[in-house]
């Protein structure tokens, strides 16, 4: 291959992210164009909340679950200790919503590395109902939440339901950067997966399923030493022949970080987990990175026409994709103000992706962990995760 052919070949490779963006744009248009599903079935539900410490605005997050337009449900919390500060928040909740069935369990009864999953194991054992709705502690929901996420389970082919989440309207730089990255990057990948191969994962802020579907793969006991529990639950349910249904519904999730550094650490943790759980898919993210490939194309063939063609196409597609998912689909109108951060996010995301290949450990809840053979292993000097 002579140098001229090599240049054109590399320019062709550099255009591959544009094809990915077009598929993502088409997928988002199809997904959010679906008519809403309606079902009148409202089986009794157990809402399961593994808790550690007090999240910002914890009371309002929990109270949103007590305001559900749903006939019969219980809310179960699992907390580490009776002196955990969150217990007073739950006591206030029980006092102000006396008609709600609220219970608190103390301790997971396990020394597994992933204490969140250990707590979920106990919560499932103690739950009174067959239908389970699992969610993070820092999630806030609307009154139609349970009806929306439980309804699709009326179809016997559906084994789990999951939905999107968006950060609250936090004006800080880190939160705005995360919001635009989530919509334009993370959700774009999810919708491409939905289009091409179906959803074979779940998103942690909401997983609606049943005891039977969890029992198919051994329940949370089978994964309490593994990272990425939300992804695993969805994958294992799908592996047993049941559909994991992604619905066009959103909940609010508090950012969980306050600085750019905390955002970087959170993203790095997720990338390291993905590298271990889906190594080829993680490597394939290289072909979804439009910004570095566009810059590479300009470096390969430094001309005004190439610069204009690649950068203009990259920006146009990224803005269109972010609008299609975030504004048209998820109704986040203020995303217009955050779109100026798309290039910043793409540069940061590419740097984190590259660094994830040499990162040997991840940090979670003030402790360090390694992943060996798919198992989460605390660093000897670190306390067990909770």
Structure characterization notes:
Helix content is 49%, strand content 17%. With 386 residues, it is of the alpha/beta class. The chain has two domains: 3-31 and 279-356, no CATH class; 37-257, Alpha-Beta Complex (Spore Coat Polysaccharide Biosynthesis Protein SpsA, Chain A). The chain has an eight-stranded mixed beta sheet with strand order 3-2-1-4-7-6-8-5, with helices on both faces. A three-stranded antiparallel beta sheet has the order 9-10-11, with helices on one face. Helix 7 (173-196) crosses helix 13 (304-329).
Tell me briefly what this model is:
The chain is of the alpha/beta class. The protein has helices at residues 3-14, 16-32, 58-66, 86-96, 115-126, 145-150, 173-196, 211-216, 229-239, 260-277, 279-284, 290-300, 304-329, 335-338, 342-356, and strands at 45-50, 73-79, 101-106, 131-134, 139-140, 158-167, 207-210, 243-253, 361-364, 367-372, 375-378. The strands form two sheets. The protein has an eight-stranded mixed beta sheet, with helices on both faces. The protein has a three-stranded antiparallel beta sheet with strand order 9-10-11, covered by helices on one side.
Descriptive tags:
eight-stranded mixed beta sheet; 2 domains; 386 residues; Spore Coat Polysaccharide Biosynthesis Protein SpsA, Chain A; disordered C terminus
